[in-house]
UniProtKB/TrEMBL annotation:
Keywords: Glycosidase, Hydrolase. Belongs to the glycosyl hydrolase 28 family. InterPro entries: GH28_Enzymes, Glyco_hydro_28, PbH1, Pectin_lyas_fold, Pectin_lyase_fold/virulence. It comes from Gossypium armourianum. PANTHER family: PECTIN LYASE-LIKE SUPERFAMILY PROTEIN, PECTIN LYASE-RELATED. It comes from the Eukaryota. Gene3D superfamilies: Single-stranded right-handed beta-helix, Pectin lyase-like. GO terms for molecular function: polygalacturonase activity. This is Polygalacturonase. It holds the Pfam family Glyco_hydro_28. One of its GO terms (biological process) is carbohydrate metabolic process.
């Protein structure tokens, strides 16, 4: 089927939550992301579908999320808010040439889907006061392309997920083979492009390229914690531009949100094989913060061709802890001492003896 939104067409979500259906919790999350028990459904929802297109001449789907955000902050909701558009257990999904606006919760949430394309889509929500309005959240999805989009929202512009702690480990469906390219994104609260923190089914084979992140709290981020299990591996970032970001590159291993306290304290995620090539920008306070830990070290990280203009002139602008990797050629700012140094022909210059040293400083 095709849902076609003509120019100036607009689908509006009703603001009375009592008229929204309740649905079972997602199996890889255990219960609604914000409350136990069922969750609110979505304005546009589908399950077990094949070959679905949502497109148009830039018509809009408007969740009218303002009342949801207010009730969430006032703790007046008894169930988790629903995404604006959610497609589950489906194949061959295309969303193009429309605007998605003011979602109650995550904006577009493909869940356990294959062959998903998002192209020429604008996603908008207030950058402050619109909690959890992620733009696009591929969740346990395979073969995804997100390209030529503009996203400015109240949380992560894009967040790749695959389940939450023991529920995601049991469900066991990874997100993999994802291409994100040619985007302009903004997130004053979270990050332009995130992986996690719900990544217990694993995330692999992700390419993020030709992306501009402007006026944001963080540019690109990987976030996880003890109890997640799973892995994040084979992640490639290239040709990224950071314009006015507080922190450019973040890898965080202590993002301690859990569905309950029954998570496995020995379920340590694996973070490895992550590369950053062609990273440029200006007005960045801390260009890199890689916060591994003794239980969750970050392995085989590569930096090549990086030049980021900074606004913080003191030490600790390239921050590391429990990270192993290398720098190829000359980069700016100078890397932390945890990384091996190679020349541009990839010949070793100086090997690190301090991979576990930490100079993480959240005060900058």
């Amino acid at each position: 089927m095709t849902l076609f939104l003509a120019e100036d067409a607009e689908i509006l979500g009703i603001q009375d939550e009592k008229r929204w259906p309740l649905m079972p919790p997602l199996p890889s999350y255990g219960y609604g992301r914000e409350h136990r028990g069922p969750r609110y459904g979505s304005l546009i929802h589908g399950q077990n579908l094949e070959d679905v297109v949502i497109t148009g001449h830039n018509g809009s789907i408007n969740g009218q999320g303002q009342s949801w955000w207010t009730k969430y902050r006032q703790k007046l909701l008894n169930h988790t808010r629903g995404p604006l558009v959610q497609i589950m257990w489906s194949n061959d999904i295309v969303i193009s040439n429309i605007t998605l606006r003011d979602s109650p919760f995550w904006t577009f949430h493909p869940y356990d889907c294959k062959n998903v394309t998002v192209r020429n889509v604008t996603i908008l929500a207030p950058v402050f006061g619109a909690p959890n309005t992620d733009g696009i959240d591929p969740d346990s999805c395979e073969d995804v392309v997100i390209e030529d989009c503009y996203i400015s929202v109240g949380d992560d512009a894009i967040a790749i997920k695959s389940g939450w702690d023991q529920f995601g480990i049991i469900y066991g469906r990874p997100s993999r083979n994802i291409l994100i390219r040619n985007l302009i994104v903004r997130s004053m609260v979270s990050a332009g492009v995130s992986i996690g923190s719900e990544m217990s089914g694993g995330v692999s084979n992700v390419t993020v390229e030709n992306v501009t992140v402007w006026s944001s709290r963080r540019a690109v981020r990987i976030k996880t914690a003890v109890g997640r299990g799973g892995y994040v591996r084979h992640i490639m970032y290239r040709n990224l531009t950071f314009d006015d970001a507080q922190v450019g590159i973040v890898i965080k291993t202590d993002y301690n949100e859990h569905p309950d306290m029954d998570f496995d304290k020995n379920a340590f995620p694996i973070l490895e094989n992550i590369s950053f090539t062609g990273i440029h920008g200006q007005g960045v306070r801390v260009p890199v913060r890689i916060h591994g830990s003794e239980e969750i070290p970050v392995r085989n990280v590569t930096f090549r061709d990086m030049n980021v203009g900074i606004t913080y002139k003191k030490k600790h602008i390239f921050q590391c802890a429990f990270v192993q990797g290398r720098v190829i050629g000359t980069i700016f700012p100078a890397p932390c001492e945890n990384l091996d140094i190679y020349d541009k022909e990839e010949r070793p210059v100086k090997l690190s003896a301090a991979q576990n040293v930490t100079d993480i400083d959240y005060g900058v």
